[in-house]
Amino acid sequence: MTIAVLGAGAFGTALAVALARNGDAVGLWARDAGHAAAMQATRRNDRRLPGAELPQNVTVSAEIADFLAASTILLAVPMQRLDAFLHDHAGALDGRMLVACCKGIDLASGRGPVAIIAAACPKATPAILTGPSFAADIARGLPTALTLACADPRAGEALQAELSTPVLRLYRTEDTAGAELGGALKNVIAIAAGVVSGAGLGDSARAALMTRGFAEMSRLAFALGARPETLAGLSGFGDLVLTCTSAQSRNFRFGQALGAGEPFDTTTTVEGAATAEAASVVAGRMAIDIPITRMVAALVGGHVSVPQAVEALLSRPLKKE
Ligand SMILES: NC(=O)C1=CN([C@@H]2O[C@H](COP(=O)(O)OP(=O)(O)OC[C@H]3O[C@@H](n4cnc5c(N)ncnc54)[C@H](OP(=O)(O)O)[C@@H]3O)[C@@H](O)[C@H]2O)C=CC1
Ligand SMILES: O=C(CO)COP(=O)(O)O
């Protein structure tokens, strides 16, 4: 086995399916032994990715020890769980090629996935796989392009070759900060775009929101060392467009429910919610203005109503674009 995917949510499962179609033997770790056994037996993940069939060369287990022969390990656990997960398993994971497949900023530390990996597993080679893709599309074998970011160029080239498939095209960069910040911050703007949609403010308002959202994503990301071309690429602009315009996105749907004053299933993974708060703290320390993100954090925290948030954004001083 050369590849293991740790985390059998929608995305981890979809990646395991796609990589197995390349002919590789792929390991898929689920934290719940009963869930792992059911997937191994039924060749399906009805809990997280209904409708996708696991190829025979995917082995599912709840024992990380079963996958330690893998040379490349994909980490597909939610962002706010990554730090604890790595600390629990650092003995097994340090020194390996670890590819984060999550999007967000850790609320406790203000770090992105690559820095979280580097701190927990200092001998590992960290990378991140991110960009515009819905798990269901990847599992169906629809064409998809993602960004693979790794600071070590040789490791990045090897990962690009190993993790690309005929329909899953990876573009390479060494700019890990740009890749992870684009993926993290676009989820926040997608919540805001959902609010605009749910509150019935119109498509013109959504286009304005996405554009000003991209401006503030870029402002914060550049201050944190990201490169402009990465923000303009798949992991930034590309994923912003996808997530702000599709009802397949959980962040967008969560925002729609907020905007319409409707309930939303609290067990759904909505990475932008915690990241709005984490990004607001980071930007506040650096005196960087990210008004949409701060408003999303205030809305999610229940500190403002939707009409108050809209009024606050519309009454900001007029300025140069
Ligand atoms: N879904 C998508 O289309 C895409 C998702 N992503 C990113 O992938 C990451 C994972 O999302 P996704 O797979 O969709 O999430 P899901 O909601 O589908 O699944 C979450 C997964 O995380 C597991 N999990 C929850 N808590 C812990 C924990 N404490 N330790 C270890 N595992 C835990 C869950 O296990 P259990 O089932 O037992 O609860 C489940 O396997 C996110 O950062 C997301 O932004 C990126 C691109 C596309
Ligand atoms: O990151 C994604 C698309 O690239 C998935 O979006 P959601 O997490 O909002 O569903």
What features would you describe in this structure?
The chain has 14 helices and ten strands. The longest helix has 23 residues. Helices cover 52% and strands 14% of the residues. Helix 6 links the parallel strand 9 and strand 10. It is of the alpha/beta class. It starts with a strand and ends in a 7-residue tail after the last helix. It has an eight-stranded mixed β-sheet with strand order 5-2-1-6-7-8-9-10, with helices on both faces. Strands 3-4 form a two-stranded antiparallel sheet. Helix 7 runs antiparallel to helix 8, helix 7 crosses helix 12 and helix 12 crosses helix 13. The protein binds NADPH dihydro-nicotinamide-adenine-dinucleotide phosphate and 1,3-dihydroxyacetonephosphate. The site of 1,3-dihydroxyacetonephosphate has 13 residues, from helix 7, helix 10 and helix 11.
Q: Roughly how many Å apart are the termini?
A: 52 Å
Order of helices and strands: EHEHEEEEHEHEHEHEHHHHHHHH
Question: Based on helices, strands and strand pairing, what is the structural class?
Answer: alpha/beta
Strand content: 5-15%
Helix amount, in percent?
40-55%
Briefly summarize what is shown.
This protein has 321 residues and is α/β, with parallel strands linked by helices.
Task: Present the secondary structure layout.
Blueprint: E1 3-6, H1 10-20, E2 26-29, H2 33-42, E3 44-45, E4 49-53, E5 58-61, E6 72-75, H3 79-93, E7 97-100, H4 113-120, E8 125-130, H5 135-140, E9 144-150, H6 153-163, E10 168-173, H7 176-198, H8 203-223, H9 228-231, H10 234-245, H11 250-260, H12 271-285, H13 291-300, H14 306-314
Helix pairs in contact: 3-4, 7-8, 7-10, 7-11, 7-12, 8-10, 12-13, 13-14
The structure holds NADPH dihydro-nicotinamide-adenine-dinucleotide phosphate (NDP) and 1,3-dihydroxyacetonephosphate (13P).
The site of 1,3-dihydroxyacetonephosphate has 13 residues, from helix 7, helix 10 and helix 11.
